[in-house]
Structures are given as C-alpha cells and as structure tokens.
Design a protein that fits this description.
InterPro entries: HotDog_dom_sf (IPR029069), PAAI_dom (IPR003736), Thioestr_dom (IPR006683). Belongs to the thioesterase PaaI family. This is PaaI family thioesterase. By secondary structure, this protein is of the alpha+beta class. The chain has a single domain, classed as Hotdog Thioesterase (Thiol Ester Dehydrase, Chain A, Roll). It has three helices and six strands, in the order ααββαββββ. It has a six-stranded antiparallel sheet with strand order 1-2-4-5-6-3. A hairpin with a 5-residue loop joins β5 and β6.
Amino acid sequence: MDPAELLALMPFAVATGVELDRAGPGEVAGRLPWAPQRCTAGGVLHGGALMTLADTVGAVCAFLNLPPGASTSTLASSTSLLRAVRGGTAHATARPLHVGRSTVVVLTEVTDDDGRPVASVTQTQAVLGPA
C-alpha cells in the first residue's frame, strides 16, 4: 500500500502533520516538521506530538505485518523522551521486534535533523481477527 494511502486511514495523524516517507513490513519511516502550534513552552516540540509521530509510524509497521484480514489495536506503549526538538524536523523509523500470532511488537526510534536520538518508543499491538 502507498504511504499516502496508509496515512489517509489515520485522520488524527494527518491533522497533526505527520508525513510518511516509506512503508514496508520491515521498516516504516515518517516525519513531523517543527511548527509553533506543535510546541510547548520555549518553542520545544510537544512530547505528545513526538509520541503521535512514533505511534503513527509504529502502527503502520504493525499493520503491514498482520495476516490477511486481521486488524490491530495498541495494547501498550512505552516512550522515553531523550532530547528536545526546537526546530527542523523529527524523523521516526519503526521496525518490528516481534511478529507473532497474537501480538506485534514494534520499536520506533525518533531522531532530529542531525540524527541525534530524540525518543525511543516500544509498542505492543494486538493481532485482531476479522470482525
């Protein structure tokens, strides 16, 4: 599926400005440009915005690793915020750590424009059978 089509399935991600660069079962990459409306005090990109970026990229990665007809829902997500983003773009890359029958675990690393770590997110997604 095309990255733009995948992103269109997530209106919240679109509304917050998340962009997808590439999407495959082994790796999904996206970004979120700095903007004043996405900031907290002092012009720092809000942690919730970074978490939205990571959750979106990670969810797409989980989705692309599902068996045919299955869907997914987040069971758990753990975020470590490591560095402030005061300009430029936050970049996220998600890779599956575990693809099983009942769960998919994804690690998403977020970096700044210089490749420095900004956040690390591990999420566990349920594999849900067809409705």
